[in-house]
């Protein structure tokens, strides 16, 4: 029996307030807690955290983080994210070689977020 409960990815951010607004508009994740250095966002039973980085040699922003959010039915989410202006419908990749339907996009810090349905 697994002892794992859930996972909460922490994405680097250059501007927490800006990114909270972006996520609400483009992903539907809502602000739950935080300040200018660290924040938690939630949608349904999923959480994302944002952590501020100065983007200096001592505190690099990095970017390039990737998260995959697995869903039961991707169709309504494609419609929602097209309506939000987050993606264009042609970003949906159906029947990938690895057995998924999926679409992805980048946030303002170049973190990649993928919505994935196993098929």
Commentary on this structure:
The chain is of the alpha/beta class and 119 residues long. The protein has one domain: Roll (2,3-Dihydroxybiphenyl 1,2-Dioxygenase, domain 1). Helices cover 18% and strands 34% of the residues. The chain has two helices and seven strands. The protein has helices spanning 16-26, 75-84, and strands spanning 10-13, 30-34, 38-43, 46-52, 66-70, 100-106, 112-118. The strands form two sheets. A four-stranded mixed sheet has the order 1-4-3-2, covered by helices on one side. The longest helix is centred in the first third of the chain and has 11 residues, at 16-26. It is globular, with a radius of gyration of 15 Å. The two termini are 25 Å apart.
The structural domain count equals 1
Shape: globular
Mean residue pLDDT? 90
Largest sheet: 4 strands, mixed
How is this fold's topology laid out?
Layout: E1 10-13, H1 16-26, E2 30-34, E3 38-43, E4 46-52, E5 66-70, H2 75-84, E6 100-106, E7 112-118
Parallel strand pairs: 1-4, 5-7
Antiparallel strand pairs: 2-3, 3-4, 6-7
List keywords for this structure.
alpha/beta; 2,3-Dihydroxybiphenyl 1,2-Dioxygenase, domain 1; 2 helices; 7 strands; single chain; three-stranded mixed sheet; 119 residues
In short:
Helices cover 18% and strands 34% of the residues. It has one domain (10-118): 2,3-Dihydroxybiphenyl 1,2-Dioxygenase, domain 1, CATH 3.10.180.10. It is an alpha/beta fold.
């Amino acid at each position: 029996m697994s002892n794992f409960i859930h996972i909460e990815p922490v994405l680097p951010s250059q501007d927490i307030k800006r990114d909270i607004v972006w996520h609400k508009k483009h992903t539907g994740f809502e602000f739950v807690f935080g300040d200018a250095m660290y924040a938690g966002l939630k949608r349904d039973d999923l959480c994302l955290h944002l952590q501020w980085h100065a983007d200096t040699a001592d505190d690099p922003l990095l970017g390039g983080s990737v998260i995959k959010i697995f869903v039961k039915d991707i169709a309504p989410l494609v419609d929602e994210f097209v309506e939000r202006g987050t993606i264009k419908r042609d970003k949906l990749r159906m029947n990938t070689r690895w057995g998924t339907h999926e679409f992805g996009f980048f946030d303002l810090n170049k973190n990649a977020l993928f919505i994935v349905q196993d098929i």
